[in-house]
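Section 3.1: Structural characterization of target chains.
Under the original work plan, the team committed to producing a structural model for every single-chain target entering the pipeline before any wet-lab resources were allocated. The record below documents one such target. The sequence was received from the expression subgroup and is listed exactly as submitted; it comprises 319 residues.
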Amino acid sequence: MSLFLIGLLFLATAGSATADADAKDTGRWVDGKSDGWFWYKSLPEPVEEEEEKEIEPTAAPPPQEVAEESDPGPAPLSSAWIRANIQSYLDAALDDPSPENVSAYLYIQKYAMDKSFAFMDATEEATLGHSDFDEINRRPTATFANRKLDDKATANNQIIIEKISATTGIFFFMDGSEASMAQVQVLDMLERNYQFDTVKIAVTDIPPSLNKYRIKRDNGHAGQMGVTSIPAIVLIRSDGVFDIISQAPVAYSELQKRILVGSKRLGVITVDEFNSTRPLSNIATTLVKLPGDDSTESESFTPIPAKQIINAFSGGMYQ
């Protein structure tokens, strides 16, 4: 019997423990009434969230100013300075013609003129007797020498044009106007003096009285050659290559000059042959090649140092 009671007691104790455990697991107030007054437990205090600290924007450091070297500009009263500033002094004198403003402008103007005179004198000294700079080497100032040059040029002119007439001809585009008729007479003179072969072509109807000039009718040649104005003179080589030398009436002397220029452009005559017809001497063009890669920076405002210019033309004689 006693063993039976002990077993019941053991079961009762185990059941009570199980009930307490279930009450704690469910968390209901009814199940936890056995706790008595102590079931009322203080709630845990809420954890205060840390306020987000506002990050104050830091000012960016000011950009470091690059120290730019100030351009001092041209030297006062130099040619570049006068060119850049004289207008400002003139404007000031015009807007406010005070003695001070006017005097300042006049002083600068006089100084510029003095520099010009100094340059003129230096140029004369450098030019006098120089084989390249002195222009009397091309055309003498002496009258007797000029006559000799003129006579020589005239003789060469006739020789060269006769040579041209042997390998070239002339197409003359005309109409019935007085200008065309006057030009026909000039061309007839050219034919007589140099035996030029001339073909006269009418772009419009012409009166029957002009039939004696053996005038041909234009069959589109004027348009093909690019003639846009009448009368027109075209110099043409034997192989058909041509050059329009005039699209207006020209006098006899002017026509000869144009024939010479056209022949040079067509390659009928050389540059030396062309120059021989001019009343000048020493007119050969000096072509030089300026240094490009080995050029050194100049202290002046010129793109190529003056020394290199002189050496290029003089064959390196300047040191």
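Confidence is low (pLDDT under 50) at residues 1-19, 21-30.
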